[in-house]
Amino acid sequence: MQFDHGGTVYSVTLGFDVANDRIGEVFTHGAKIGSAMDRILDDACVALSLLLQHGVEPAAFAASMGRLGNGSEPASIIGALADLLAWEDRS
User: Fold this and answer.
1) Which terminus of the chain is more exposed, N or C, with fewer CB under 10 A?
2) How many domains does the chain have?
């Protein structure tokens, strides 16, 4: 799937843990390959995937992410990914 955050389009792939019928991992691309943002996205996906694999509910870590002044828009791409995971988990 693709989504836009801050004017950049990101491609997201979700891996499912079929044994538990849950999302188990997330992969994201959209930054220039090899750039600092590309490496940050890789590390963020590892961290989010570990949270998922250790049973942390996506809504819980999404609620913990920073928000812009309006209180609803995620402050970073990591928060946007967390929101996406929480939304997909409800589906």
Assistant:
1) C
2) 1
